[in-house]
Automatic annotation (TrEMBL):
It comes from Methylomarinovum caldicuralii. GO terms for cellular component: endomembrane system. Residues 20-283 form the HTTM-like domain. This is HTTM-like domain-containing protein. PANTHER family: HTTM DOMAIN-CONTAINING PROTEIN, SPORULATION-DELAYING PROTEIN SDPB. Keywords: Membrane, Transmembrane, Transmembrane helix. Pfam families: DCC1-like (PF04134), HTTM (PF05090).
Length: 641
């Protein structure tokens, strides 16, 4: 019994220590913003490609009408998460939509984004992590809600250090380790050519020409072996201060390289944002010191007994990242300001006054203009308020508000009630003491660890070694657990870009159309080089390069997805599908497991030939192949390009 409970007890002790240690929340807030922006751009991508992804046949046989309703709601949740407005609620809505869309729409199979499970895992964590404590509108909302004259409320700015470790431990570390195990069974990865081979395949490369890097064999092998080593050691060293910066630099270089060299930008960006959590806390502090001004540019005097004035102070200070404006209470500081000496107390309480570094005095709307210009990034709004016609209107509006504002009486000077609400109190009671929180978290980690072990051992080792038979009747249970963990926790095999994907992947396809004069035009999808054009990245790239066209070509899949692409782009180009002739083009490339100089350029230069035609009739497309699959050129490509 001691053997079973002792490791769990030690894990609880460790978690209790990282739960009790408080650190600034800046990095966690930056991670939330990065995650929200990646999610938002992906949702906008889905909105743009909605007919292609969700219609049975784009524009001709429409899919569920509620998709068009849910996608904007999802986008609003991602925007709220990015801004930190009702952060936990937006995180929960974002997670729910991500699970629903990847489990019950074509995104789960035909349009896999390659990073959905990672976003699900980290999205689930954001529901529970206190990421709203930095760089969020929630801090402003709470400060406005609980502050009264004489009692300014400052929301917490620190979080348990565990909040930084959780996404790295639960999302990144298992992903890396599982992926590294799969890579050991791939020939080109064992040869050190893991990044080189997909970088030589026209379907996978970005418009950026990196052939000068690909032609350095020693560098490509150094990168390939370093990636494998990095993925193996990351789970065991990311938490150690001594290794944090080297792992941060390597991780940013690797995923930055993926972002700029492949057309799977969302995956690269989604991985990169996790490295905000690896940035040393001292770097965030130095960044803040570098941004802030040594002295404020403007001093603003306000009535300390005016609730509206206090709210103005809180709002401006929240957005004043450079500390360019200093607010001072009239009752205690105005007498020391020479620029205000000629004003009576009644005059001082009538307006909002400001004094700049040169001693010039401003009041009313002009004070707000100076504040906007001092903040820096809001300077255009200050210029707008100066315009003839707008400035007099702003002065009248300001005067109406200023003259109708009230000052605090004894009732409004009472300290705010900071007691948690019923739901918050119930949640705190459920979590209990720090020891109980740590114990609950330890059980969750053990549960997630077992789910990850099921995925890695079953599909990373036993399946690769051909030993699945030893599982016997346990195999269906393992598959069921994987389906559950895949859908809700983002735990899945990470067998990406391995030998079983590229071996024999030597035929590419593209689509063209003929106008009335017989001139051939390329659809804005695959270009003459064989590259997938922007914005056909991410899950649209996956649909064509990983499902429609693979080493094991299928006429059914090729027809299905060629029809979808033609219906989508043909309709957008205004073509009459039944009267337009659509050609299927094919060309051969090479995908060797050993390094060859100039392979990328050679693959891009290969000629196309007509491989078939897609005929439309009664709003349905039928692919007529002119030669059997796999389609190859009449000649055999040379071994050494």
């Amino acid at each position: 019994m001691t053997f079973v409970t002792s490791p769990l007890s030690r894990l609880t002790d460790l978690l209790q220590s990282v739960l009790e240690r408080q650190v600034p929340a800046t990095g966690l807030g930056a991670f939330r913003i990065g995650y929200g922006l990646v999610a938002l751009q992906e949702i906008l991508f889905l909105i743009h490609f909605r007919p292609l992804i969700f219609d049975e046949l784009p524009y001709l046989d429409q899919g569920p009408p509620m998709i068009a309703f849910f996608l904007p709601l999802w986008a609003l949740a991602a925007l709220g998460l990015t801004l930190g407005w009702h952060t936990r609620l937006c995180a929960a809505v974002n997670y729910l939509f991500w699970v629903l869309f990847t489990a019950f729409t074509p995104m789960w199979r035909d349009f896999d984004g390659g990073f959905d499970q990672m976003m699900i895992s980290s999205g689930l964590l954001l529901i529970f992590l206190p990421s709203e404590r930095a760089l969020s509108l929630d801090r402003l909302r709470l400060a406005l809600r609980y502050s009264v004259p004489g009692h300014r409320y400052e929301p917490p700015r620190t979080v348990p250090v565990w909040a930084y470790y959780a996404p790295l431990l639960i999302t990144l570390a298992p992903l890396y380790f599982d992926s590294a195990i799969h890579k050991l069974f791939s020939e080109h990865w064992r040869n050190g050519l893991g990044p080189w081979l997909p970088s030589s395949h026209p379907y996978y490369i970005s418009p950026l020409d990196l052939s000068w890097l690909l032609d350095l064999e020693w560098l490509q092998k150094a990168i390939g072996y370093t990636v494998i080593g990095f993925q193996f050691v990351f789970p065991f060293l990311f938490w150690h201060p001594r290794f944090r910066v080297p792992l941060l630099v390597l991780g940013v270089l690797f995923h930055g390289g993926i972002t700029i060299s492949f057309n799977i930008y969302p995956f690269g960006l989604g991985m990169l944002v996790h490295y905000f959590l690896m940035v040393p806390l001292s770097w965030w502090r130095r960044l803040g010191e570098w941004i802030r001004l040594p002295e404020p540019r403007l001093k603003v005097y306000y009535d300390g007994l005016c609730p509206l004035c206090l709210r103005t102070v809180i709002v401006v200070e929240h957005f004043d990242i450079r500390r360019a404006v200093r607010f001072l209470d009239l009752q205690t500081h105005a007498a020391a300001e020479a620029a205000l000496a000629d004003l009576s107390e009644d005059q001082l309480l009538t307006d909002l006054y400001a004094v700049d570094a040169q001693g010039r005095r401003y009041q009313g709307v002009d004070t707000y203009i100076q504040i906007l210009e001092a903040l820096g990034y809001t300077r255009p709004l200050g210029w707008l308020l100066r315009l003839p016609g707008i400035h007099p209107l702003a002065r009248r509006l300001y005067r109406r508000i200023a003259d109708s504002r009230r000052r605090c009486d004894a009732a409004c000077l009472a300290p705010p009630n900071l007691e948690p609400g019923p739901l918050a109190q119930a949640w705190q009671d459920f979590l209990g003491s720090p020891r109980r929180k740590a114990a609950r978290l330890a059980r969750v980690l053990v549960f997630l660890g077992l789910l990850q072990l099921n995925s890695t051992v079953h599909y990373g080792l036993l399946h690769r070694l051909g030993w699945e038979g030893i599982l016997g009747p346990v195999a269906p249970v393992s598959n069921l657990l994987l389906s559950f963990s895949h859908a809700f926790f983002g735990i899945t095999p990470h067998a990406l870009y391995l030998a079983d994907h590229f071996k024999g992947y030597e035929t590419l396809f593209a689509l063209t159309w003929l106008d009335a004069q017989g001139r051939e035009h390329w659809l804005p999808f695959v270009n003459r080089e064989g590259r997938l054009l922007t914005p056909n990245w991410g899950r649209v790239h996956s649909m064509w390069a990983n499902v429609a066209v693979t080493p094991r070509l299928s006429a059914y899949r090729l027809e299905k997805f060629a029809t979808r692409v033609i219906a989508f782009y043909g309709t957008r180009l205004g073509l009459d599908l039944e009267r337009t002739r659509f050609r299927l083009k094919a060309k051969s490339i090479r995908m060797p497991a050993r390094w060859e100089k100039g392979l990328r350029d050679w693959n891009l230069r290969q000629p196309w030939h007509d491989a078939g035609e897609l005929v439309w009739k009664h709003d349905r497309g039928r692919l007529e192949l002119w030669e059997p699959l796999p389609v190859r050129n009449a000649y055999s490509p040379p071994r050494n390009p």
